[in-house]
Write a structure and sequence with these properties.
The protein is mostly helical and about 120 residues long. The protein has five helices and no strands.
Length: about 120
Amino acid sequence: MSVATTPTVPPDPTGAATPIEFARRLRALMDACRRSLDSVALRSRAAGTPISRATVHNLVTARSVPRRDSLVAFLRGCGIPPREQIRWLTAFDVVYPDPRRGAVPPRGAAPAPVLRGARSH
Protein backbone atom coordinates (compact mmCIF):
# COMPACT_ATOMS: atom_id res chain seq x y z
CA MET A 1 0.00 0.00 0.00
CA SER A 2 1.37 3.38 -1.01
CA VAL A 3 0.89 6.41 1.17
CA ALA A 4 0.60 9.70 -0.67
CA THR A 5 2.68 12.39 0.91
CA THR A 6 2.02 16.07 0.72
CA PRO A 7 4.98 18.38 0.49
CA THR A 8 5.84 20.07 3.75
CA VAL A 9 5.29 23.81 3.68
CA PRO A 10 7.76 25.74 5.81
CA PRO A 11 6.48 28.28 8.33
CA ASP A 12 8.58 30.88 6.53
CA PRO A 13 7.48 33.44 3.93
CA THR A 14 10.64 33.12 1.81
CA GLY A 15 9.78 31.95 -1.67
CA ALA A 16 6.03 32.52 -1.51
CA ALA A 17 5.09 34.09 -4.83
CA THR A 18 1.31 33.67 -4.98
CA PRO A 19 -1.53 34.31 -2.53
CA ILE A 20 -2.10 30.55 -2.18
CA GLU A 21 1.57 29.89 -1.36
CA PHE A 22 1.62 32.76 1.11
CA ALA A 23 -1.58 31.52 2.79
CA ARG A 24 -0.14 27.99 3.08
CA ARG A 25 2.92 29.39 4.79
CA LEU A 26 0.75 31.40 7.18
CA ARG A 27 -1.12 28.18 8.00
CA ALA A 28 2.18 26.38 8.54
CA LEU A 29 3.27 29.19 10.86
CA MET A 30 0.04 28.93 12.82
CA ASP A 31 0.46 25.16 13.09
CA ALA A 32 4.13 25.46 14.11
CA CYS A 33 3.10 27.90 16.85
CA ARG A 34 0.40 25.43 17.92
CA ARG A 35 -2.34 28.00 17.51
CA SER A 36 -5.93 27.52 16.39
CA LEU A 37 -8.01 30.04 14.48
CA ASP A 38 -9.69 31.02 17.75
CA SER A 39 -6.47 31.34 19.72
CA VAL A 40 -4.86 33.56 17.07
CA ALA A 41 -7.93 35.82 17.17
CA LEU A 42 -7.92 35.93 20.98
CA ARG A 43 -4.18 36.57 21.21
CA SER A 44 -4.34 39.29 18.57
CA ARG A 45 -6.97 41.03 20.69
CA ALA A 46 -4.75 40.71 23.76
CA ALA A 47 -1.87 42.22 21.75
CA GLY A 48 -4.00 45.27 20.97
CA THR A 49 -4.61 44.45 17.30
CA PRO A 50 -7.86 42.49 17.26
CA ILE A 51 -8.93 40.46 14.26
CA SER A 52 -11.83 38.06 13.98
CA ARG A 53 -11.68 34.30 13.61
CA ALA A 54 -13.09 34.77 10.09
CA THR A 55 -10.20 37.08 9.19
CA VAL A 56 -7.71 34.52 10.48
CA HIS A 57 -9.44 31.88 8.35
CA ASN A 58 -9.34 34.15 5.30
CA LEU A 59 -5.61 34.75 5.79
CA VAL A 60 -4.72 31.04 5.93
CA THR A 61 -6.98 30.10 3.01
CA ALA A 62 -6.39 33.08 0.67
CA ARG A 63 -10.16 33.66 0.49
CA SER A 64 -9.72 37.38 -0.08
CA VAL A 65 -7.05 40.03 -0.48
CA PRO A 66 -5.91 40.70 3.08
CA ARG A 67 -5.07 44.04 4.56
CA ARG A 68 -1.54 44.57 5.80
CA ASP A 69 -2.75 45.39 9.32
CA SER A 70 -4.65 42.07 9.40
CA LEU A 71 -1.37 40.28 8.71
CA VAL A 72 0.31 42.19 11.55
CA ALA A 73 -2.53 41.21 13.89
CA PHE A 74 -2.23 37.59 12.75
CA LEU A 75 1.51 37.56 13.38
CA ARG A 76 1.02 39.08 16.83
CA GLY A 77 -1.66 36.48 17.51
CA CYS A 78 0.89 33.80 16.66
CA GLY A 79 3.40 35.40 19.04
CA ILE A 80 5.85 36.43 16.31
CA PRO A 81 8.25 39.13 17.53
CA PRO A 82 8.44 42.40 15.54
CA ARG A 83 11.88 41.56 14.10
CA GLU A 84 10.52 38.39 12.49
CA GLN A 85 7.36 40.16 11.31
CA ILE A 86 9.47 42.19 8.86
CA ARG A 87 10.15 39.10 6.72
CA TRP A 88 6.43 38.35 6.52
CA LEU A 89 5.55 41.94 5.67
CA THR A 90 8.21 42.04 2.96
CA ALA A 91 6.86 38.84 1.41
CA PHE A 92 3.31 40.21 1.72
CA ASP A 93 4.34 43.28 -0.28
CA VAL A 94 5.70 41.03 -3.04
CA VAL A 95 2.63 38.79 -3.17
CA TYR A 96 0.14 41.64 -2.81
CA PRO A 97 1.74 44.70 -4.44
CA ASP A 98 0.04 47.98 -3.56
CA PRO A 99 -0.64 49.91 -6.77
CA ARG A 100 -0.58 53.17 -4.80
CA ARG A 101 3.12 52.67 -4.03
CA GLY A 102 3.98 52.37 -7.70
CA ALA A 103 6.52 50.10 -9.25
CA VAL A 104 10.01 50.12 -7.81
CA PRO A 105 12.52 50.92 -10.57
CA PRO A 106 15.26 48.35 -11.11
CA ARG A 107 18.57 49.06 -9.41
CA GLY A 108 20.65 51.44 -11.50
CA ALA A 109 17.70 52.68 -13.54
CA ALA A 110 17.50 56.38 -14.31
CA PRO A 111 14.85 58.27 -12.33
CA ALA A 112 11.59 59.08 -14.08
CA PRO A 113 11.65 62.48 -15.81
CA VAL A 114 9.82 65.34 -14.15
CA LEU A 115 7.40 67.04 -16.52
CA ARG A 116 7.19 70.75 -15.91
CA GLY A 117 4.50 73.02 -17.20
CA ALA A 118 2.14 70.22 -18.18
CA ARG A 119 -1.44 70.72 -17.16
CA SER A 120 -4.11 68.14 -16.88
CA HIS A 121 -7.60 69.05 -18.00
